[in-house]
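INFO  loader      accepted 1 record
INFO  loader      residues=299
INFO  predictor   begin
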Amino acid sequence: MYDLNDLQSFAMVMETENLTESARLLGVSKSTLSRRISNLEGILGQPLLLRHANKMSANDAGRAFFPFAKKILDTAKQGKKTLDHLQDEVVGEVDVTVFSSFARSWFPNEVLSFLDKYPDVSINLRTDSILSHDIKSDITLWLGEIKDTHLKAELLGQVSCGLYISSGFSSRYKNPETIKELEDLPWVNLHNLYTPSDELELCHNEQGMEAISIPRSRLLSDQIGMQMEAIVSGNGVGILPDYMAERREKHHPGDLIRVFPDWQLPSLPMYLIYPYGHLPKRIQAFLQHLRTGAVDVLV
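INFO  predictor   done
INFO  writer      dumping tokens
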């Protein structure tokens, strides 16, 4: 209902009883100061001050309203101090969006360890496989190239990927001796880590670049876990982030076999996306937590 600038202008004039001095203290022109007081009087429906050249004094209405104006200004000031305090404490909610593949990956443990460290923080987590142009989350953790965004996009590093088969698949099919022979094998292509395409490029330090055709899957999922389980079950050759395969090896040795380890797929960039400017401590803390945690999965 009331504009705080109008209330502040009125209160200052009440204290100084001088238009010029009040304008100087507030850092505004006398015309701006007069307009603010007139705005307040218009809202209240009656004058508050008596004007005498450069001097102003309160009428009955002004004297009656002044304590209420001061109370409103003091309450607003206290509210600002409370919010400033929140900026300095790791408390409150953090809205986070992550690339869907991270839902079953290293990310859940990072979230849980952060919550253990900061018991006054809560996290609202959602996953997505398509990066929205209108990001509303406090923090977005993304895998893959991103288009122009009005938010800050911080490149954390690159995630390497490789071709994998299961030990059971290896026993049923002859291991390919050349890259082109991969085209004759069954493929698990449930998750498009790369832009959907019928072609996959691999690079060798000495032999250069080679492209192979891969079949499109009739089943697509944004959950990389389904891709890994289908490969482990022996359904074909498939792409996995190397860090996921390495973690699988620790818990289930021999489940996955790297195919053509000397051939590299294009690495995928990992980004942290968040607003520009000063951020609350809880967001700063979680960003730093993710920077530290992501080191283990980046190359």
